[in-house]
């Protein structure tokens, strides 16, 4: 089978398309013919050796996919050949076939396309866990979303609205903010033209109750200075590249919490709660309250362009690799 392979750490142009043996299926494994693979920021980190997960080389990156079941192990009870499934893989999804544990796969609703399915689990799973379990967001609270036009950012805008929050979207250009507005944002901040702290204060005089921060860098401290009393600042990632050093007196003075969000660990430590979250997300999808925004679909051979679009933060919504028809 064909796969996009990492033989050495580096940028996307170091990857090569090569051949791997079809993976063996046993136990609770499910072999899937990959039709579409969703790109996420960890994919850009894992190929450069900057991610906590470091597979043995050569490996195929790709942590999220949608496809069709080809074969199941003897312990599998939920799926059969021909079923459409989506799910997380950690790595390996940039290939024509993959074997994933049964518990990591979800049936794809009939109305959902392969491209949407490959864009669903990680962004909505991360954002819903962040808002529900980590922030315990309440109806009417003010939610500031940094990087609001990216995959997790747009998902958070949609979910924030679905959960009754007043959503303030922040992004680096008007074009990106237009996308956030379409997703339901109540107010917009262009943080290349406005100081983030001043802009938030002009829109939320007492500060915001929840900050969703997948960006990091200088924006983290600015956002932390905008917190309301009993606020929750969610640390989701560091797309800006720099891990911020937060003055420890700020949470003290603000009476707020700085809360880590590591959805990958959550799915392993609390699998039943995570599956309940996914079922609730699929219900929201069925109600039309959330829908993955797939901004780009690239042929398998255009993986360099696709990954660079993500690493250079040009994407609005999700980028998808089309692996098979």
Automatic annotation (TrEMBL):
Residues 10-321 form the Enoyl reductase (ER) domain. Pfam families: ADH_N, ADH_zinc_N. Gene3D superfamilies: Medium-chain alcohol dehydrogenases, catalytic domain, NAD(P)-binding Rossmann-like Domain. GO terms for molecular function: oxidoreductase activity. InterPro entries: ADH-like_C (IPR013149), ADH-like_N (IPR013154), ER (IPR020843), GroES-like_sf (IPR011032), NAD(P)-bd_dom_sf (IPR036291), Zn-ADH-like_protein (IPR051397). This is NADPH:quinone oxidoreductase. The lineage of its organism: Bacteria, Pseudomonadati, Pseudomonadota, Gammaproteobacteria, Oceanospirillales.
């Amino acid at each position: 089978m064909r796969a996009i392979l990492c033989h050495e750490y580096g940028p996307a142009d170091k990857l090569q398309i090569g051949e791997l043996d079809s993976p063996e299926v046993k136990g609770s494994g499910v072999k899937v013919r990959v039709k579409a693979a969703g790109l996420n920021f960890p994919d850009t980190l894992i190929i450069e050796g900057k991610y906590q997960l470091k597979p043995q080389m050569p490996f195929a990156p790709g942590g999220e996919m949608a496809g069709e079941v080809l074969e199941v192990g003897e312990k599998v009870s939920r799926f059969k050949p021909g079923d459409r499934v989506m799910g997380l893989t950690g790595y390996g999804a940039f290939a024509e076939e993959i074997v994933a544990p049964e518990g990591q796969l979800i049936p794809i609703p009939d109305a959902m396309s392969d491209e949407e399915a490959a864009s669903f689990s990680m962004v909505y799973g991360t954002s819903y866990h962040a808002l529900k379990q980590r922030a315990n967001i309440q109806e009417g609270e003010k939610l500031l979303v940094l990087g609001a036009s990216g995959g997790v950012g747009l998902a958070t805008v949609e979910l924030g609205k679905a959960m009754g929050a007043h959503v303030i979207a922040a992004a680096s250009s008007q074009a990106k903010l237009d996308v956030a507005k379409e997703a339901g944002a109540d107010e917009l901040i262009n943080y290349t033209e406005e100081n983030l702290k001043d802009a938030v204060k002009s829109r939320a005089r007492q500060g915001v109750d929840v900050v969703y921060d997948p960006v990091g860098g200088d924006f983290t401290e600015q956002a932390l200075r905008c917190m309301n009393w009993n606020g929750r600042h969610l640390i989701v990632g560091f797309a800006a590249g720099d891990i911020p050093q937060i003055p420890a007196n700020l949470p003290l003075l603000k009476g707020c919490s700085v809360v880590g969000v590591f959805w990958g660990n959550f799915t392993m430590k609390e699998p039943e709660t995570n599956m309940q979250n996914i079922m609730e997300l699929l219900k929201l999808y069925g109600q039309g309250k959330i829908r993955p925004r797939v901004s780009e679909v690239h042929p398998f051979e255009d993986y360099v362009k696709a990954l660079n679009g993500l690493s250079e933060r040009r994407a609005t919504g999700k980028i998808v690799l089309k692996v098979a028809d």
